[in-house]
């Protein structure tokens, strides 16, 4: 292996310590404890794990958390009513409604009702718009976390080519916006892109966010490139469950300069950035 592993787990722990210090200062100076409301509808076991990890991180950072676990058959009207209450609650600085939602609920309608200034997921159209025109707002946690990792290695991306594989509203598109803000030349690739391996081989920064296990192989990677693997896929290997990314780590690490592992890469950064967005939200309210 030639690549250096980007230790997202350790960097996220460092970030949580910084957040804890800043949150303690905020409490001393302003008497404010940033509050995060997490809403989970249904009892999908994988979702449950994320919610628990988020609650653990909240406690570690000295933030307050409000947990709302609703039954899988919750009506859209009831969920909208809860969001309305959280919007009005001054103790709540951040609202996260865990996706996916059950099919009787229109997720766009729910996300669209969240107060954009409490939208710590950065999924509201107003925050997507703010990001695209460079106004302050909330940046989705996964791209924000990935960008922090990239920044540590390459503070400027001027003259660099960044390729983002995946065009989702929650990762691919906001990731591309952030890379563009850092002056990268950005290409967004997706399932209909021609000659994807050839294109990827031109990337100085390659971000894989497609949700296809082990898709990106070593011979897709430019020697020395920074490879960021956003995928979290549970696959079966020899009858056992295993967590893998969208990148075939073993072969890609032979070629890349730096690479994130899965797990312990981008995942922990996502959760740390949720804490950071919640702290930012409280700080903005204090600043008026
Ligand atoms: N409104 C909303 N916002 C989200 O941010 C959101 C969501 N819905 N729905 C589900 C996905 C998934 N997600 C993860 C975050 C961290 C890890 C994470 O920390 N993973 C660890 C290990 C996980 C494990 O061991 O199972 C790692 O990669 O090292 C995983 C998955 C946030 N999501």
Automatic annotation (TrEMBL):
Transmembrane segments: none annotated. Pathway: One-carbon metabolism; tetrahydrofolate interconversion. Residues 6-121 form the Tetrahydrofolate dehydrogenase/cyclohydrolase catalytic domain. The lineage of its organism: Bacteria, Pseudomonadati, Pseudomonadota, Alphaproteobacteria, Hyphomicrobiales. Catalyzes the oxidation of 5,10-methylenetetrahydrofolate to 5,10-methenyltetrahydrofolate and then the hydrolysis of 5,10-methenyltetrahydrofolate to 10-formyltetrahydrofolate. Gene3D superfamilies: Leucine Dehydrogenase, chain A, domain 1, NAD(P)-binding Rossmann-like Domain. One of its GO terms (molecular function) is methenyltetrahydrofolate cyclohydrolase activity. This is Bifunctional protein FolD.
